[in-house]
Amino acid sequence: MSGAATMPAPMRHLVLASTSPRRRELLARIGLTPSRIVAPEIDETPLKGESPRAYVARLAESKACAVERAADEVVLAGDTTVAVGRRILEKPADEADLRRMLALLSGRRHHVYSGVCVVDADGRARARVADTVVAFKRLTPAEIDWYVASGEGMGKAGGYAIQGRAEIFVRFLSGSHSNVVGLPLFETRALLTAAGIPLG
Fold it and tell me: Which terminal residue of the chain, N or C, has fewer Cβ atoms less than 10 Å from its own Cβ?
């Protein structure tokens, strides 16, 4: 007597709702390559009184839900911000803004929050928020000049890239390193597994 044949799990295709090369590189570390990459168009302005944690959670879900999805697609979106207390440090507007951010981060701890949201093939949204504590050494004026001149901090939340030159400023880190880069892999893997996307 033979048992009933087991139906293979349907193939799910991953859609990344982000054009960030860092997020693509992080997904590649766990063997995942998105079948599509989409840049969702949403308003990223923080709401009045909104906490950094709530801010990244809201943006990640908004980005994931803003992407049109086929029946066999799973959408992944993320948003990362740097916060000093309740103050959200977005991407610097110019070099003067970058200098202001580096001076604020100098010699103190800050939080890096990432919201991750996955919308599965049934339209169900699952989300998590990662929190990493980072402490910078006290930066000298020469170090700030050097980093600003590198151009690396422009276009980065909080005005720095931990995967680049700014790593020499980090004297302490507690939590996920990949979170600070832009996508917490522990949380991301858990959400994608629940949505039917296996490791590559």
Answer: N
- For 56-95, give the DSSP string: HHHHHHHHHHHS---TTEEEEEEEEEEEETTEEE-S-SSH
pTM listed for this prediction: 0.90
Residue 180's domain comprises 13-194
Per-residue model confidence as pLDDT tens digits over 121-172:
999 999 999 999 999 999 999 999 999 999 999 999 999 999 999 999 999 9
Q: Across 8-157, where does the E strand assignment appear?
A: 13-16, 36-37, 73-84, 87-89, 109-119, 125-136
- Stretch among 4-8, 42-46, 95-99, 157-161 having the lowest mean pLDDT: 4-8
Considering the candidates 79, 97, 122, 145, report the single residue annotated as catalytic: 79
Q: Does the residue 31 lie in any domain?
A: yes
184 belongs to a structural domain? yes
Cα separation of 38 and 35, whole Å? 10
Q: What is the CATH number of the domain that holds 59?
A: 3.90.950.10
- 15 has which bridge partners? 36, 75
Does the annotation mark 122 as catalytic? no
> Which secondary-structure segment (H or E) carries 173?
strand 170-174
Neighbours of 111 (CB within 10 A): 18
